[in-house]
Amino acid sequence: MHILLASALPWDIPDDLFTPWASKLTRIHTGADGLVEQVEQLQPNLVFLGDLPQHDAITAILDIRAHAPHIIVIPYIASPAPDFLLQLMRIGINDVLTDTSAEAIGEVIERVSIDPTKAAAPGAKTVRRHGFIAAKGGAGATLLLANFGVALAKAGNARVLLVDLSLPFGDLDIYLTAQPIAHDLADLVEEVDRLDQGLFKAMVHHLNDRVDVIPCPQTFERVIRVTAPNVARLMDQVAPYYDYVLFDLGSSIDPVKLGIIETLDQLAIVATLDVPSARRTSQMFTLLQHLDFSPGKTSLVINRQTSRTSISIPEMEKAVGKKVSQTLPETASGVADALAQGAPLIETQPHSPFAHEIDDWVASILRTPRKGKSLWQRLRSK
Known about the structure:
17 helices, Rossmann fold, 2 domains
């Protein structure tokens, strides 16, 4: 592999950090203006951008993409600001070098050097990725994901992985089981370098024969071990073991979640029918537009619908500019009972209106009619 180190000034980083992966290593000192010409002439496989200012780095990346789209570009930023990471995500840069240790450099090189033709080999299994994000805290996205995942596995006879990315301190597991869980997301990302299928199966929590769970770390010291690159690597390794991977994204978008959001096939934004939720929902859709996330991959889900909501569904749709795709009824008493029993709500109350709506939602994803639904129930859902 030919690796090019490009920087405006001499970059004080040893060659031997790159030589284990480089058959050829080249250094150049230039600003953004003269970079593309040299890249086109040298034709490296991988370019590391050193100390270019943020605006120049964006310009250089766009120019290289336009003239040599086959060349991989990795910017080095010791302390990247969130808005700069967002800009990089928008132009398709998912890997950023923030640490010049041998381990960090090797990790990013190995990740971007994976042969994409192997991942997309003919006949390879298609894994669907779905995300759930709350427009604001308390909307109930975690409850919906937990029950949706269990119902999806049963109705589709599918293997489903539920991942709690509601950092920090997500609580997806309490909606599924009362059993203690030995390993969380921090444990798994720390083992990502040696995590073969056997070790992963030994560490992941098996809810039943079709559903596995990766819970969120529960202390701040463990949360900070979870980084965006390692989460991306973990998901790339383990997702092929499943038919569906569902992510609980909490109620915010941060650098750890950005890379996952980009890979989603569907993103459900869960809201409630009140003014604060409508405002946050509108802001969420606007942010996704700025991230160039396809509107066709988003859905608006209304949770805890009652006859006493402060705004109507048409008012919510007008405020947000998106049609509601699914509604779920209020379930406060049922949730309390399910938590006490340590089981999903659809299992403790399988004939409840909530369970029926979850089944309908799953049927719409699988594109199959829900078995056992009466004519009266179908009329009521119109």
